Amino acid sequence: MNVADPVELLANLVRIPSINPRERAEPAETELAENIALWASERGMQAHTEEVLDGRRNVIVTLPGDDDRPLLLESHLDTVETDGMTIDPFDPVVRDGRLYGRGACDAKAPLAVFLTAMARLAERGPRPRTVVLAGVVDEEHLYRGVTALRASGLPTPVGAIVGEPTELRMVVAHKGCMRCRIEAHGEGGHSSQPWDKTNAIEVAADVVRYLQREHAPRLAALARPLVGPPSLAVTLIEGGQGPNVLPDSCVLTIDRRTVGGEDPHEVWAALRAELTDRWPVTVHEPHIVDYSLDSDPADPFVCTVAGSLRESGLDAAPLGVGYGTDASKIALDGVPAVVFGPGSIACAHTADESVPLDEVRTAVDVVERVLRTGGAPA
Known about the structure:
This protein is α+β, with helices and mostly antiparallel strands. The chain is built from nine helices and 19 strands.
């Protein structure tokens, strides 16, 4: 394989299914991880895999350089499901300058970009700094791959580029989230005698109205320049035992998006206090927590990425987005992190997922240029 051709590599990655198994005990991403390790080893790089859980393995590719403190390239191996796709998810097709297949955009294109840039560096040099690529599992569910990476003993990177479809923009900020269940309690009983009894569904309705009309509007005061204000949405409701039974429980699920400066656990604690003071409810501990990203656009590493974008004639202005990425977890360790890659988030998870190949090739040039500087401004 020509190490300078990311398109053939991307097609090979798409051919290997790596659907996130959610809570099933399946080694879903492992074949892909092992394929990447072999590809990298054949091109002079050090590569190994590390088990995270249930036989699911991260892959770590290292290209040693003059400075041992690494520059990290990170992207995820897993994809979402293929139900409802209108194309063959694992038979990549190139048409009208785009490559189609599950994961083509999110996020096997960034993997192909990172690997190609590293292979070019391995072949031609120079290597001012060690480069580490981490392909991780479970980004599409509970982030357990990047969590394992943080605990693996990897030296703190000088900076990180996290691969996601950003249309070749440099994302430095995104929202986090806190998802929890709010359980409203009632007394139960026969529906023919509802008088003077607490109806759990009616309590839940009061909570929803309060969240929409009083709580959510206050979040506007916490707006951040690149991502706007936090948000809160009620996304699920479950309650009742039968049409002739007064409900003794009704459960709401909320999605609370956080911004820089907010800790998701503190957000939960404040919301719990606010609601339990007013209604007979239990605000259960969060079942999903993710952190926001708020990298400093003036950081030297971020400036290096911006400079490489400008050299390719691209928009180098820092961007904020509403979706989450692994970058926020990496940034918890004090690592300046940016999110970058070819393709659009609008194409991710779609029935005919694809990525423009001109963006893939341009992204290789941008990343290779950053690696040749070692992550420091020229």
